[in-house]
Inverse folding.
């Protein structure tokens, strides 16, 4: 992997402060399982720091999408792996989309976590289409953002049926 400042910053962002390396180090394999859950937990940990106004949250999500796409693109280019499993910022951003403009109570956050992980893992249409057809850093991030949108919509429906 490159040793330039840009490469190091991209690696730091794409792997969420190098937490994306943890599963591979624990399993001794290049492609350790569990990185997605770690990335989602990072997203959950930062929920209290997310902007409270709708406009600021929208701007934050847009900035997070752009920065994470650029970082994922650079990191994957440096490693030579199309969708490197050490990139976990995609799950972090996807989870932030899953909880966007919803109450941040414990039940909502827990359901968002489970629904997001399910949509990210199962990749129903159009999430799978984005995963297969969109390349580069945008492709790495976009399928998780779409999984977050799906989780968010399901949560909104659940809140309409049974508000908690």
């Amino acid at each position: 992997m490159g040793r330039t400042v840009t490469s190091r910053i991209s690696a730091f962002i794409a792997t969420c402060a190098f937490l994306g390396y943890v599963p591979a180090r624990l399993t001794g394999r290049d492609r350790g399982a569990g990185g997605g859950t770690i990335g989602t937990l990072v997203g959950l940990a930062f929920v209290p720091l997310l902007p409270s106004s709708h406009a600021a949250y929208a701007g934050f999500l847009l900035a997070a999408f752009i920065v994470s796409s650029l970082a994922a693109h650079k990191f994957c280019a440096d490693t030579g792996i199309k969708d490197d499993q050490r990139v976990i910022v995609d799950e972090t951003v996807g989870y932030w989309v899953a909880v966007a403009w919803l109450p941040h109570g414990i039940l909502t956050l827990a359901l968002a976590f489970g629904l997001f992980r399910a949509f990210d893992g199962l990749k129903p249409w159009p999430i799978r289409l984005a995963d297969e057809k969109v390349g580069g850093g945008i492709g790495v991030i976009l399928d998780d953002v779409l999984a977050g949108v799906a989780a968010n919509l399901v949560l909104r429906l659940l809140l309409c049926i049974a508000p908690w």
User: Anything to note?
Assistant: The mean pLDDT is 93. The chain has one domain: 5-161. Residues 5-161 form one domain.
